[in-house]
Amino acid sequence: MKNTALMNKKRLLRKGMEILMRELGPVETPRFLSLFPAKHAESVKRHRAWQSKLDKAAFFKQVFSSK
């Protein structure tokens, strides 16, 4: 089995953009990228903000308590 190291985000982004530009060209690359709206990123930010203010013990007690 081959060990694989993950690329850092900057290198991954640069390499991905190079591949898209080479394969799709300068017109189709931004068109392709616009197919994926940034909604997900916003929901992740909201979730992380909610988590940072969460009282974990109280939350678990509420979720796992018998009713």
Amino- and carboxy-terminal Cα gap: 49 Å
Which whole number gives the mean pLDDT? 87
**Number of domains as seen in the coordinates:** 1
Number of helices: 3
Q: Which stretches are poorly predicted, pLDDT < 50 over at least 5 residues?
A: none
- The radius of gyration is 20 Å
The biggest beta sheet is recorded as:
none
Helix content: over 70%
Topology, number of strands: 0
The ordered string of helix (H) and strand (E) elements is HHH
Q: What fraction strand?
A: under 5%
Overall shape: it is elongated
- What structural category characterises the helix and strand content? mainly alpha
Walk me through this protein's architecture.
With 67 residues, the protein is an all-alpha fold. It has one domain. The chain contains 3 helices and no strands. It has helices at 9-33, 39-52, 56-64. The longest helix has 25 residues, at 9-33. The chain is elongated and about 60 Å long. The termini are far apart. The mean pLDDT is 87.
List keywords for this structure.
3 helices, mainly alpha, 67 residues, elongated, 0% strand
